[in-house]
Design brief:
Order of helices and strands: HHEHEHHHHHHHEHEHHEHHHHHEHE
Radius of gyration: 25 Å
Number of helices: 19
Distance between the termini: 29 Å
């Protein structure tokens, strides 16, 4: 499959792979083995954009491609008008049992196809603009009548905020205050209220007084703020919100009381979604099989285990993509080679295409996997980094450089992640390519 990629995105993709990180865009061009999920995920996005809510869990060992999968899905969602946020769960910075912190990180990472994180201010401004456009479309007032337009927009705002006011009056009050501050050109107050709407602590008292709101966000208020954010996104023309809670397996390493609170918070969130409390939300969590199946993870809370239970057979190709859990089986050697072919096409150098053939891509894939204890699933990041930075770049720049003759594969401890170091062979024999 050939995917059209612009010159700028080609450069961005290659630069990211050269640095050993997942590219921030253009992931369709690198998607290998994800076709079987596409139809079911399209249905899920349709359901969320239609006012429903979707919960999915993605499971895979380290190196199976969970981060790539979630960012690839994020790209699909953005193209369909969704806002997207990826939140890394961690014991110290973003504990799952403190939803006020999760909500804050969500807003900090909020992105749309047009705006990078944090996109909250553009979303809020787009919401105000949409209100004005709706009033003008009604024909009751003209754009020249500034006073009348302001009055009509205010009345429409109150009607739109009615449902939000019932659920979370503080969020609605801050939205009113934000619009008033923007209209008056009061930037400090607008900044403060936007920060308060984003769950930031320590917002200036003067800004809060202007909107009549008090205090900082707590765990239960965060869920109501999420409802308010979903309503604002919908009113400003967005299809919905995709939220990724990444690395939830870190819950296995926290104290038992904090773990129990976090698992119960996840269970409550899933139940609230199924009850229709979060229209337009697509929530995706990622974790290892040990988290979903082990006694230190989901199985520790039977009600959550029941909600996430998915029957996996021995053959991944028969997995049901519509199930609550999706299994990423990880890379095979053939998939690594296929990925190398994709990257070679994106690199776009005739000399690289001529000199680095498919056989060499396979040789390098086997060598990298061999240095990582034969664990092909752990190899993709290192393989692509070596392929681009050590092989493609040299072939492209030096006319007399040949990878089979001049390249020795070496892996240094400081260039590997902890998982890759653990997988690496105990001996440090350099593999000659």
């Amino acid at each position: 499959m050939t995917v059209e990629v612009s010159a700028r995105r080609r450069r961005d993709i290659i630069d990211a792979l050269r640095r050993g990180v997942v590219p921030s865009n253009g992931l369709d061009a690198l998607a290998v083995g994800l076709d079987r999920f596409t139809a079911a995920l399209d249905e899920d996005l349709d359901r969320a954009s239609g006012g429903g809510s979707v919960f999915k869990a993605v499971r895979g060992e380290y190196g199976a491609g969970k981060t790539f999968f979630t960012r690839w899905l994020g790209e699909q969602a953005k193209r369909r008008g969704f806002a997207v946020a990826e939140v890394q769960i961690s014991e110290l910075e973003t504990p799952l049992h403190r939803m006020e912190t999760v909500y804050r990180r969500l807003v900090e990472q909020l992105a749309t196809e047009q705006f990078a994180p944090s996109a909250l201010r553009p979303v809020l401004d787009g919401w105000i603009f949409a209100l004005e456009e709706d009033v003008l479309a009604g024909g009751q007032v003209s754009e020249a009548d500034a006073e009348g337009l302001d009055r009509e927009v205010g009345e429409l705002l109150e009607r739109r905020l009615a449902a939000i006011s019932r659920r979370t009056p503080g969020f609605a009050a801050a939205l009113r205050g934000y619009r008033t501050a923007v209209a008056a050109g009061d930037q400090p107050t607008a900044d403060g209220l936007a920060a308060w709407l984003g769950g930031q602590p320590h917002v200036a008292a003067s800004a809060r007084r202007a909107a009549g709101v008090k205090g900082d966000l707590d765990h239960f208020g965060a869920l109501s703020f999420l409802q308010g954010l979903l309503a604002v996104l919908q009113d400003s023309g967005h299809a919905g919100l995709l939220v990724v809670l990444d690395e939830v397996e870190t819950l296995q390493r926290v104290r038992s009381d904090a773990r129990d609170k976090a698992l119960n918070a996840l269970r409550q969130l899933v139940d609230d979604m199924h009850a229709g409390r979060f229209p337009g939300l697509f929530l995706l969590v990622t974790g290892t099989p040990a988290f979903f199946d082990g006694q230190q993870g989901v199985q520790r809370l039977p009600p959550l285990a029941q909600r996430l239970a998915t029957d996996f057979g021995t053959e991944p190709r028969w997995d049901n993509p519509r199930a609550t859990q999706l299994r990423l089986p990880g890379f095979t050697e053939d998939a690594l080679v296929q990925l190398g072919v994709r990257v070679r096409e994106i690199y776009g150098s005739k000399r690289v295409s001529d000199l680095v053939d498919d056989n060499y891509l396979g040789e390098l894939a086997r060598a990298v996997a061999g240095r990582l204890g034969g664990q092909v699933g752990v190899a993709p990041r290192v393989y692509l980094k070596k392929l681009v930075a050590d092989v493609f770049d040299r072939v492209d720049q030096f006319d007399d450089w040949d990878p089979r003759r001049n390249y020795e594969l070496t892996l240094r401890s400081d260039e590997l992640t902890e998982v890759e170091r653990n997988a690496a062979s105990a001996d440090d024999v350099t593999l000659l390519m």
